[in-house]
Structure formats: structure tokens, C-alpha cells
Amino acid sequence: AGGTMGCIRVDKITEYLCEPLRKCLKDEDPYVRKTAAVCVAKLHDINAPLVEDQGFLDQLRDLLSDSNPMVVANAVAALSEMNEASSSGQPLTEMSGPTINKLLTALNECTEWGQVFILDSLSNYAPKDEREAQSICERVTPRLAHANAAVVLSAVKVLMKFMEMMSSDSDFVTTLTKKLAPPLVTLLSSEPEVQYVALRNINLIVQKRPDILKHEMKVFFVKYNDPIYVKLEKLDIMIRLASQANIAQVLAELKEYATEVDVDFVRKAVRAIGRCAIKVEQSAERCVSTLLDLIQTKVNYVVQEAIVVIKDIFRKYPNKYESIISTLCENLDTLDEPEARASMIWIIGEYAERIDNADELLESFLEGFHDENTQVQLQLLTAIVKLFLKRPTETQELVQQVLSLATQDS
């Protein structure tokens, strides 16, 4: 009957339901109690003040220490659902140490969804000190071995949150972090939505502790049928894990990605090559030659991204790779994106003394000065002034030209 009761949505009837519901919450059959707990949440949805006036909240709180784990789980679920709906923003129930203890005991015995609800409510609890945080973590850790992805992810959420309370170089945290990685990697063979959440968590772990997964690089390689949001997340993790030891593998992958069909992904892959060069200095040369190979493909957006990235590499490692400038200049006419144009202009201004016709190249940009994006105009102004300081006599006219363009309204 409890189930039917909970499905009726009419204000008048709700008041008649209170008495039977109150009885059901105390019924000796745990099945009735756990169903009644869910009814309270539904009733709260229809008429919140009624639930509070009738003392149902206190009854639900009492059920948190019920002897039956499923009743506990449903009471937690009902309270957390009501918390989300409540406008006050105040939690309906303050979790205390003993309650947490009951929840942890119920955790081992209830269904998967019960476990998810309990773990989620644990993640909103603020342990009073590091010791309490540790003991909760110890009791949550076994959930990492669970077959259900939702349980694993909810456990990860609790552990990640409580680990922030502990000193990051403690043995406890080091051991725990090692335990976190394998179950998350296992989730990478699930469906894309689960993979994505696992990847977001892995990304957070890797930012704090890149060493944990350094041998797992291969699982983050992109599969051609991964949805774009999974691809981009994997790409980010690959860069974070890139090191001298695996950079050759990573670059080979990234070069492959740069020939895919998804334009957005290709651009990010080209940028990733640049991030590798900047992160792993020993690889910079390989990265530059990979970028040059990509420029030779003459695929317009690939060329433009590559030029933007090369500018960043030039800034990080000045006077190392200037030999490639002439190749870059060959592609000048094809650049139509502001960022690529601005990067190319920066390169010409920075290395003007190595480019015989630097003044002509920069002058060619002046023709449509007022149609250019502000970022391009500023780069042009700066580059021409740099050139003037290097060759004052030949470029005096050019400087006057750009200054008059820059100071007159378009």
C-alpha cells in the first residue's frame, strides 16, 4: 500500500496520508519502512511545510540508525533528495559522527543504488579532523573494487574530497592515491558517459600526482569512435603524463590525430604538440619537426594552428629553431585567422634580422590594416617598431606609415 500511497498527487489527500505514513515509518517490516522513507520525499515534494510540521523529518532522521541497511539507504536517499529541493540551502539533517558510523555500516550491506546515495551524502560531510577523514576513507576504499561504475565513481568522489584534508605527502595519501588509479582506468572500457566522468577524475588525480599513471599512457590514446568530449579529455591527460620516457609514443599519436576529420579535435591535437615541446624540453626538436611535417600537408587550419604553436616554442626557446622560418614564410598568403596572422607577424618582427625581406612581408599586411583584428594590428605595430630599431634607415617610411594608420580612425 505504501507504494500506491506515494504515487497519489493531490493536496487534499496528502493530509489524510499523514497518519498511515507515520505508522508505516515505524512498521516492523523493513520493506514497509524503506518504502515509507521514499514516500516522505514524495510528500515533501508536494507539500514541504506539512512534512516538517508533522514531524516526518525527525522520523526519517531516526531511520538513519535503523537496523536494516536498505532502510538506512532509503532514508539517506530521501533526505538528500529533499535537501536538493529545499530552498533554504540549509541541510535538513546535520550528520554527526554516530550517524556517519551507521551509514558506513549500512554501506557494506545495501544495494548498489543504496551505496551510491550513502556515498554521495558522505561526500557532503565535513570530518572534524584528519583522523576521522582517514577512518572514513579506510571504510570507503573497498567500494573501489565494486562492479558498478556509479558506486566506484561515488567512492572516488568521497576519497578525493577527504584526501584534500590530509597532508599530501603522508603515507596514507600516497597509498590511497595508488589504489584510486586502477579502478578508474578499468572504467575507461565502459560507455562514453562513464568514461568521461572517470577521465575528469583521473585528470584531477594526475594534476596532483602525475607519477601514479605514468606507465598507463596507452589507455589514454584516443579511439577513432570516441565522442569528442572523451577525446579532448584524453588529450589533456596525455599531455599531463608526457615525459622524456614516453614522448616519442605521444608525438606519434598526436601526429596521427592531426589528420582526423574533426576540425576542433585536430586543432587541439596540434596545440598539444606545442604543449609537449614546452613541457619536455628534450622533445622540443622532435615536436618542431612534427609540426613542420604537418605544415607540409598544406591543410589550411592545420598550418595555422601549427604557426601559432611554433610562435610559443620560439618564445620558450629563443634562437634555436630559426632555420625553419623560411618554411613558415612560404605559407604567409594562406593565413586568414587572426591568431595565426598575429603569430606570423610576431615571428617576422622578432627575427627580422634573419629575414631578408622582412620589411616587404610586414608591409604586405599594412594594405588592409583597418580590416584586421585588433590583436593583429597591435602585433604589426610592435613588429614594425622592432624592425625599425634593427634597421632604422631602410624602415623609417614603414614606421611612419603604420603609426599614421594606427592613429587615424578607421
From TrEMBL:
Protein localization:
Endomembrane system
Taking every annotated instance into account, which residue ranges of this chain make up the domain Clathrin/coatomer adaptor adaptin-like N-terminal? 4-410
Gene Ontology terms, cellular component aspect?
A: endomembrane system; membrane coat
Q: Which SUPFAM superfamilies match?
A: ARM repeat (SSF48371)
* UniProt entry keywords in alphabetical sequence: Membrane, Protein transport, Transport
Please give the chief subcellular localization of this protein. membrane
Q: Which domain of life is it from?
A: Eukaryota
In terms of InterPro entries, this protein maps to: AP_beta (IPR026739), ARM-like (IPR011989), ARM-type_fold (IPR016024), Armadillo (IPR000225), Clathrin/coatomer_adapt-like_N (IPR002553)
Keyword Membrane attributed: yes
Among the record's GO biological process terms, what is one? vesicle-mediated transport
Q: Does the keyword field hold Transport?
A: yes
UniProt similarity note: Belongs to the adaptor complexes large subunit family.
The identity of this protein, by name, is: Putative vesicle coat complex ap-1/ap-2/ap-4 beta subunit
